[in-house]
Amino acid sequence: MTAKPAVLVTRKLPDAVTARAAASYDARLNEADTQFGPDEIVAMARGCEAILCTSIEKFPAQVLARLPDSVRALATFSVGLEHIDLEAAKARGLIVTNTPDVLTDSTADITFLLLLAAARRAYEGERMLRQDAWRGWTPTQLLGVHVSGKRLGILGMGRIGRAVARRARGFDMEIHYHNRSRLPAELEQGAIYHETPEDLLKISQFLALNAPATPETERFLNTQRIALLPDGAIVVNTARGTLVDDEALQGALKSGKLAAAGLDVFEGEPRIHAGYRSLDNVFILPHLGSATLETRNAMGFKCCDNLDAVFAGREPPDRVV
Ligand code: 8YV
After folding, report:
1. pLDDT tens digits for range 178-191
2. Strand order from edge to edge, sheet including 95-97
3. 63 C-beta neighbours (distance < 10 Å), count
4. What is the pTM of this model?
5. Which residue, judged by its Cα, is nearest atom 1 of ligand 1?
6. For residues 277 and 219, what is the distance between their CA atoms, to the nearest angstrom?
7. Assigned superfamily of 104-284
8. Ligand 1 within 6 A of CB of 103
9. Where are the chain's structural domains?
10. Which CATH superfamily is domain 6-102+293-312 in?
């Protein structure tokens, strides 16, 4: 019997995924679920043919260059790829795979959760009850922003953006979008395309950020662009924190330019910009976009499918480079 390929699994994964990885590979598991730095990853990858990583570990060119020669594949338990220098991976001949599709619905659900919670002041209402501060119903208590019938602008009309649009149709929202390229009509499903992100901002009573973190989208939502939004707009971000200039967003939430925001992702996670903690009109979650057991299992199984293909000499289904 040939030896099973050794795979470093950088974080604790759901039980079913761990069981499959342990059955299929000589899996080097991180039972304590500690966050590894580059030195630990390089040391623990010794003798491994692949690494099953998450988006929390960073693989810039310097780290990729230090990985043992035995490592020929990196299967990331994420759809996002900003933590890996893909050019350097390609140059090194490293196969990189990700987990598209399976987290689309759960992330779109969280987008809508944020949108509704921000619009309807869910945080303030929750807090009132938990602090035993509710003195009874009044006609003007915690009045929020109506969602149905409003214009929703979606920045980034990939799989997740389109899943957000599907949900928005159920709320009778008018859907607008900007994307690097216009979608064919069968994918647009009536959504209105804007050539520039600025044109999109001008009409977005609600704005959903669903674009990947790239040099082009870094600090996309800055003071100048927030100024283009209609007064009282609501912004939600389930993409990456780097798309937002935190101080600009907080300034607009304080001044009333924006009515509210809903954020699942932050620059520098888990150390979020402290200003968010004291703002009542921001609804914040700790990067829960894909956090359902079904989704995390599916993400893990996708990583294993990709690694199985690599080890069998086949093309992995979700190969990025
Ligand atoms: C993951 C995500 O849970 O897939 C992504 O890109 O942002 C999350 O849903 C996280 O990145 C873990 O790797």
Report:
1. 999 999 999 999 99
2. 26-28, 6-9, 50-53, 73-76, 95-97
3. 19
4. 0.97
5. 78
6. 20
7. NAD(P)-binding Rossmann-like Domain (3.40.50.720)
8. yes
9. 6-102+293-312, 104-284
10. NAD(P)-binding Rossmann-like Domain (3.40.50.720)
